[in-house]
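Lecture notes, unit on protein representations.

Consider one protein chain, 137 amino acids long.
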Amino acid sequence: MTLNEAMAEFGPSWLRVWLPLLMLGGFVAPVVLIFWSKTRVIGIISIVASLIAAFAIDYMYKQMGYVKLLGLPHIIIWTPLIVYLIMQNRRHDFPTWPKRILTFMIVIIGISLVFDYVDAVRYFLGNTMPLVMYDPA
């Protein structure tokens, strides 16, 4: 079973709404930022960070199964990213739309980090049992 299948089958029902929003904030919005020269680097950094986190989460799933600790790559990678995004969003030389997109990214990544931190604390407090193990078949 893949991670996407595990989340669809064993995750809460609201996850089906949340995951597309997370993809918008973590992958689509940064791609849009590339179109403005002043936010191009921000978009590229955000895309690279999200790709690294996604690959790390997939690797962890294959090693550990569907556990609460899967958000750890988000915590490690997105915590500094959100600080960077907040600092960049305070600049006054960006057009209106890039600032709106940055704000959207900050909100989505921030919400995700709240879930990830809560899940990581739960994991470290003993909730280590996987809901499902990775099955390559």
